[in-house]
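User: Could you check the structure of this?
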Amino acid sequence: MASAWYILQTYSAYEAKIAREIQHKLELGDLDSNVVKSIKVPEEEIVEIKDGKKKTRKTKILPGYVMMELDLPEIGWKDTCAKIRRIQGVNGFVGTAPTERPRPIPTEEAKRMLARAGEIKGEKIVHVKQSYAVGDIVKIMEGPFATFEGTVEKIEEGKDKLTVNVQIFGRATPVEVNMTQVEKSVK
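Assistant: Sure, the predicted structure tokens are below.
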């Protein structure tokens, strides 16, 4: 069988501990590395902007869950799954009873979560936790238009982008900037 991604439900805040325990079992040979291909606790980076200061923190995409890439054999899958379920803090595989064969998540959903965590393409997606509204006056802090002030004209939440109208040579010019490059002006 081809490998697929599965979701393992854990106690809250045990995700990293369980991932380490599974990795340890792989190193000891208790679990077969041909079956357990990969273990991920997907996290995303959040940038919070407060009082003009950026603070970066990581947050789990799936709190209470661990993603596992498994190549479960037709014969012997019960043994592998039982070893994983017996780890302290593991509740089981999502959507199945302990006696059932685990069901994988759709490949596209796994790719989406891994991309969000920066595991695919090597590029992490950074989410900005800052609220802007059309008409807000902002100061550009980074990039070629640093020190310019302008008015927010358009907000693209999904891309964390703003279109800001700045005055260049006496003309209003729309400039697209990342939300991490600006801060609200206090006036």
